[in-house]
Amino acid sequence: MKVSSFGYTYIMNDFCILPELCNFSCDYCIYSNATVEQKSIPYKISKYYDKSGDNIEFFDYVANVLMNSTQCFPTPILRICGGELFLLKNIMYLLRKIHEKFETVQIISNGFFLTPYILSEIKELGNCVLHISLDGHTQELNAHRVHSSYQQEIILNNINHIIKLGIPLEIASCLTDRNTKDYEEVVKFFNDIEGDILLLPFPVRGKGSEMFVPSKQDQKQLFKILERYDLYSKVLPPIKYVESLMNYYENGYRNIKCYIPKAIVQTFYNGDIYSCCMDWSVRVANINSQNRKEIIEQIQKNRIYNIYDMFPPKLRSCRECFTVSEIINLYFEGKISDKELCNMQLFSGKTTLKMMNELRKEIIKNVK
Ligand SMILES: C[S@@+](CC[C@H](N)C(=O)[O-])C[C@H]1O[C@@H](n2cnc3c(N)ncnc32)[C@H](O)[C@@H]1O
Ligand code: SF4
Asked: For 205-209, what is the mean pLDDT?
């Protein structure tokens, strides 16, 4: 894959399907107040437990949109996310249909519907990384996500199964007033398990996030993870990620540059393209109604990208933003090495590594 021109060759397509459909209602969920304009679609959606319906027509439509967007912007990585994808009956039909078009597929889920059968199917696809959202291994630590020990037990059993099957696993944890003080316990818990596990902690962001901010005292406890990084390096992200996270808390805002809108394209199942995968405030184009040339023109003339480029960050959403994709920013800044990048399954594909390297050169050259 060739890096054609600055900014329009992306490492990842972040593809979102029906963000409003979920079986959970996590207290901090950003999707519940997302401003994305939803176009009505002429399909009846069947849920996991529905007796009738199979979603096949809907998934054929979705696969077609994704293929159009992949033709327009080929990427080695697909990040695919709902709402909750596995609440959609027959989601495996879609995953089977599209997975081969990508080097790696990162599947985001709350983990609840991942039965042994579904997991064995995911394993069979051969190129998937599971990214499960979990704030802690106990119900107390995970309290902003689950409201019963039954839910917690199911998720943990499913996670166990993922590990046993050897599917690469990322555990995404929102740091809140409930889990930050004891997050080291979460790290220890997973560190003691044999398997391909990567923990990715990050702050809650967006409207209402203030109510989840851990106290300064809790943050101090979190900082101990950095002091004992060597003990836990097996399950922690590269040390610069952890340092940056601590830095974010010390400053109260991000003070490193962001290249995410240049590295990831945010697309939706209805063809909409948004300006940034972490900030769905600006819809820049639609894959169904425009060709590549028109889409690139739309992107080029949209002033939001100049605002994203400003440093220190101009937008509140940017100042508050610290996400799992910080790995990409830190790599572009030369703070994460090729070897560290390669250690993370998501980035370890040959094409991905090559493109990350080329994009880094291209982006840094154009920014300076
Ligand atoms: C919105 S969820 C959708 C996928 C799936 N239902 C899940 O929970 O993983 C995608 C990711 O966004 C995270 N998330 C949700 N609300 C957030 C917020 N306000 N700030 C930061 N991350 C958030 C979730 O924890 C999850 O890791
Ligand atoms: S499971 Fe995911 S989408 Fe559902 S409410 Fe929780 S964070 Fe939001």
From this structure: 91
Question: Cβ(235)–Cβ(189) under 8 Å?
Answer: no
Q: At 124, is the secondary structure helix, strand, or coil? A: helix
Percentage of the chain exceeding pLDDT 70: 95
Q: Tell me what pLDDT residue 300 has.
A: 86
Residue 2 scores a pLDDT above 60: no
Determine if ligand 1 sits within 6 Å of the CB of residue 151. Answer: no
d(CA 330, CA 242): 11
- Please give the distance, rounded to the nearest whole angstrom, from the Cα atom of residue 22 to the centre of ligand 2: 6
Residue 215 has pLDDT above 90, yes or no: yes
Phi, psi of 276 (to 5 degrees): -150, 140
* Nearest CA, atom 6, ligand 1: 84
Q: Is 336 in the pocket of ligand 1 (CB under 6 A)?
A: no
Q: What ligand is nearest to the CA atom of residue 211?
A: 1
Exposure pattern of 79-92 as b/e (b: 16+ CB <10 Å)? bbbbbbbbbbbbbb
Who contacts 92 (Cβ-Cβ below 8 Å, separation ≥6)? 118, 121, 122
Please name which ligand lies nearest the alpha carbon of 133: 1
Q: What is the dihedral of CA 61, 67, 69, 74, to 10 degrees?
A: 160
Query: Under a CB-based contact definition with an 8 Å cutoff, are residues 102 and 76 in contact?
Result: yes
What gap in Å lies between CA 283 and CA 290, rounded to an integer?
A: 13
- Kindly report the CATH number that applies to the domain delimited by 12-367: 3.20.20.70
Quick check: CB of 172 below 6 Å from ligand 1?
yes
Segment 276-288, tens digit of pLDDT: 999 888 999 999 9
Residue ranges per domain, the chain? 12-367
